[in-house]
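notes to self, project folder thing:

trying the whole complex as one job this time. last attempt i did each chain seperately and stitching them together was a nightmare. four parts in total, labels are on each line so i dont mix them up again. if this works i'll redo the older ones the same way
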Amino acid sequence: MHDDVAELLRSGDHRYTNGRRRVVSALQASDGPVTIPQILELDGSLAQSSVYRNLSILEEVGAVSRIVTHDDHARYELAEALTDHHHHHLICSSCGSVSDVELTEQLERTIDEALHRTGQSYNFRVDGHRLDLVGACADCA
Amino acid sequence: MHDDVAELLRSGDHRYTNGRRRVVSALQASDGPVTIPQILELDGSLAQSSVYRNLSILEEVGAVSRIVTHDDHARYELAEALTDHHHHHLICSSCGSVSDVELTEQLERTIDEALHRTGQSYNFRVDGHRLDLVGACADCA
DNA sequence: TTTACTGCAAAGGGTTTGCAACATG
DNA sequence: CATGTTGCAAACCCTTTGCAGTAAA
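result (full assembly):
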């Protein structure tokens, strides 16, 4: 895991520093995409500007993905290429929390095929899809 | 259409002013969710701050929906309740353009049922879903 | 030992807001 | 005519950036 990140960074002339390792660990510890404030709270030794900069670089080399919600802050998660764990998100429209969810393989396949067909008829090359479930989490329902 | 918006506004002690009518017309004229700069360009007589304020109120009363992408600006579209036109989005990861797309009714039904089941097993109440197709538009491919 | 990285503080930039004049119902 | 709305400019707040010192390879 950390080795994979190191490898990705190296191929871009970047170093796997202490701070970056800490950020990656914070992402790994969570069960859903996290905001920068959450990361800073999780690990008080990190400087805000460095976290912003590092997440940006980690995204650039393909180690993390940036998620946008209606929330104030952007959210980050480990890239699926690193986790081998294709997933979607449960977004609570009441408290804003975001957690991971997996669909059945069959449903994923059905959706994927249908979207490719749909893209073709719109003359649009479909590279992937983003599917969020919006509703109320257990705490808010 | 405009009557529906007026009705929604009225029930919230809001007025359907000239500026708001213009904003709604701009949304209606587009084939996908638009940014505030696009609205301002479309109708030069609008003041930026009023457009922000009005879109916020229109969203509050359920007349428009705010869309977030990786783009710099938020995007707005008429609410599905007004258009009777459930749809998703084609998002070009190259130029950032966003346009509407409709899936077959059957696929929508399949997805909806599967997501509700999935939500149940996560103890999450699913109110709706958001499905974007990410890839390259005809111009960028 | 070279060059990338860090942390601070200051700048950017999309969005929000205070206020006095104005328009709507 | 009472009250919601407008437009300007200033404030806000998340995010980015300049810079001098530090640490990775």
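what i see at first glance: Residues 15-18, 36, 48-49, 52-53, 56, 72-74 of chain A lie near DNA strand D (CB under 10 Å from a C1').
need to look closer tmrw
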